[in-house]
Specification:
heterodimer; A: alpha+beta; Alpha-Beta Plaits; 2 domains; two-stranded antiparallel sheet; 32% helix; 15% strand; B: FAD/NAD(P)-binding domain; Enolase-like, domain 1; five-stranded parallel sheet; 26 strands
Chain lengths: 211, 413
């Protein structure tokens, strides 16, 4: 089964996914008219800043078991088996915030929505673009992502591709031979390690906190 | 394997679903005292309020028992357990043999030991039947209500009755509502909101007696004040329902004491939910956390262990969230830490937006939080408490409660 895979290292924080998500979940499905809609449509994916100010697309992980589903008081949150998505029934939702307390990723928001009865505030989160997927279209956030930070693929396929990428960079091809005699991937790995060391140095040690 | 589960609350239901999922052959008997189908107990106050109808309470499809091939025993209460012969006996004399037994009997409202507490129209609010009785009293003309207790049940009862157009007086023993869940500052914010919304609140008030001829007419407070009322709701907490258990065979403290597999001191007998006494992650001691999400996770884990999958339960965390009277309050862990010990707390308050955040630390670990009106990220912080992740930051801790808080600020000095 294909799912949305997040590659945070590729995110540049352009927030195009938020815009596309908002549009995809509006009534009119067009950006120009969506901004005039009432209630105003909101995104289900939220781009936050990472360690270096780079972007991080924070999206529902559709956990299994899902803490929000287990904690839902009216039984409004359920798993849709076909796409393994955790969904919220807008009619059953009572806006009790139990899922806000349960979600370890903070991806659920509370507002009126095109899905809700007029005037009713409900819990809103990513639905894996159920409506688009039913028509055979990939999720809007993935479609809008220009850097490959969001992909729609089999999870195992994504892992295999990454393993291959690393392996290719680490293996020595005649045309890639550098003056050091090492594959170019080693330079990349070294820089990653250096970055990790830099982060560790910035973090205070346990005993140093009360300085 | 014969499984018997006592109680069709959310813990018992989660357990039978888990057992059936793991073992399609198991014989499962569910003994349900309440005859209403498995329902959402926290939602009964919404039926009182009139926001939902009672037919919205059931949590599972109509054919739930049949589809899982569970033998339900409905409307019978377990009277005793014969641990020698592994038998459970109900009040109607029916006996059920078990190989694995789950005690998921939940909790009963804590009775109020004052004269007149058994008068008509003095209610608890714990079951669907209680709420139905309250609605009947309102239909019969009740107009003035007294609600005792500033906890979640008291607040929800007061809110519901106010929405039904009754005059409601809320009596709170401590100085502010939710005193078991929040600190004084957050409690005072909520108190102001209750008053603004037209609720008459009396703090430091305790009932001494109810008076009336068969039916409640007056509540008398310890300071001698007399309050006219034609109905009263008692919301003074709950006690684990353990009265039928043989205490010489099964270890019972406040609740049924269970180990990391949710097994009681008697092998083969498990307990989960509001009746079980396990371990509190931040208090570091045995504790009964009678909470909905805890009941779900314990029921599920108990089911796994009963079906032969040995899974450890790390312990629970006291937590609560309520959106009521136009205010959101989310709390977890220790919010009023004892004066002794390595505790440290930070808070921020924005009077304009009426938002308040408080975090309590023990050493490097977050152990408690209170959030008022900015609760959407509460689950993230709660998981830091739950997973005991040390928070080591160079920036002052006050940054954590700043409205513009961003995790990257912790890393970049």
């Amino acid at each position: 089964m294909k799912e949305v895979v997040v590659h945070p290292e590729r995110c540049v924080g352009c927030k195009q996914c938020m815009l596309a998500c908002t549009t995809a979940h509006s009534k009119t499905k067009s950006l120009l008219s969506a901004v005039l809609e009432e209630p105003k449509p909101h995104p289900r994916v939220h781009v936050g800043a990472g360690i270096y100010g780079e972007g991080f697309p924070n999206r529902c992980r559709h956990c299994d078991p899902a803490p929000c589903l287990q904690g839902c008081l009216p039984g409004a949150i359920y798993r849709y088996e076909r796409t393994q998505s955790v969904l919220i029934d807008p009619d059953r939702c009572i806006n009790c915030l139990s899922c806000a307390m349960a979600c370890p990723f903070g991806v659920i928001r509370y507002h009126q929505d095109a899905l809700s009865l007029p005037g009713k505030t409900i819990a809103i989160k990513c639905d894996n673009c159920m409506e688009r997927q039913a028509k055979g279209i990939i999720p809007a956030c993935v479609e809008s992502c220009m850097t490959g930070a969001l992909t729609f693929e089999e999870c195992n396929e994504s892992l295999r591709r990454k393993t291959k990428e690393v392996a290719r960079r680490m293996s020595l091809g005649a045309e890639e031979r550098t003056s050091s005699g090492r594959a170019p991937g080693f330079a990349l790995l070294t820089s990653l390690k250096q970055a990790q060391t830099a982060i560790n140095e910035r973090l205070p040690r346990r005993e140093a906190r009360h300085e | 394997m014969r499984h018997v589960v006592i109680g069709n609350g959310i813990s018992g239901i989660s357990a039978v679903e888990t057992i059936r999922n793991i073992d399609p052959q198991a014989r499962i008997t569910l003994i349900a005292g309440e005859s209403f189908p498995p329902y959402s107990r926290p939602m009964i106050s919404m039926v009182l309020e009139g926001a939902v109808r009672a037919d919205r309470l059931p949590l599972r499809p109509e054919k739930f028992y049949e589809s899982l091939q569970i033998e339900p025993v409905i409307g019978e209460w377990v009277g005793k357990i014969d641990t020698e012969n592994c038998l459970v006996e109900t009040d109607r004399g029916n006996r059920f043999a078990y190989d694995r037994l789950l005690i998921a009997t939940g909790a009963d409202p804590r009775p109020l030991k004052v004269p007149g507490a058994n008068l008509a129209n003095v209610f608890f609010m714990r079951t669907q039947a209680h709420v139905q009785a309250m609605l009947d009293a309102i239909s019969a003309g009740a107009r003035n209500a007294v609600v005792l207790g500033g906890g979640l049940v008291g607040l929800k009862a007061a809110y519901g009755l106010l929405h039904r157009g009754l005059n409601v007086k809320l009596l709170i023993r401590s100085g502010y509502p939710l005193s078991m869940q929040v600190d004084e500052f957050a409690g005072k914010i909520l108190l102001q909101k209750l008053v603004d919304r037209g609720l008459e609140v009396r703090v430091g008030a305790e009932p001494a007696a109810f008076e009336g001829n068969g039916k409640v007419k007056e509540a008398v407070l310890t300071d001698g004040t007399r309050l006219q009322c034609d109905m009263a709701v008692i919301g003074k907490g709950v006690n684990p329902a353990v009265s039928f258990l043989p205490r010489d065979k099964i270890k019972v403290d406040l609740g049924v004491v269970v180990d990391e597999h949710l097994e009681t001191s008697l092998p083969g007998v498990f307990a989960a939910g509001d009746v079980a006494e396990h371990f509190d992650i931040v208090r570091k001691t045995r504790w009964v956390n009678a909470l909905w999400p805890v009941a779900v996770e314990q029921g599920r884990l108990a089911g796994m262990n009963m079906a032969g999958r040995k899974v450890c339960y790390p312990g629970s965390l006291s937590r609560n969230v309520i959106r009521i009277f136009g205010t959101d309050v989310l709390t977890a862990g220790l919010v009023n830490p004892p004066a002794s010990g390595d505790f440290d707390s930070v808070f921020s308050y924005d009077g304009h937006a009426n938002t308040y955040r408080k975090l309590v630390f023990r050493g490097d670990n977050l152990v408690g939080l209170v959030m008022v009106n900015c609760v959407e990220q509460g689950g993230v912080l709660m998981s830091l408490i739950h997973n005991e992740i040390p928070i080591r930051i160079r920036a002052p801790r006050e940054r954590l409660v700043a409205p513009s808080f961003n995790y990257s600020q912790l890393m970049l000095k």
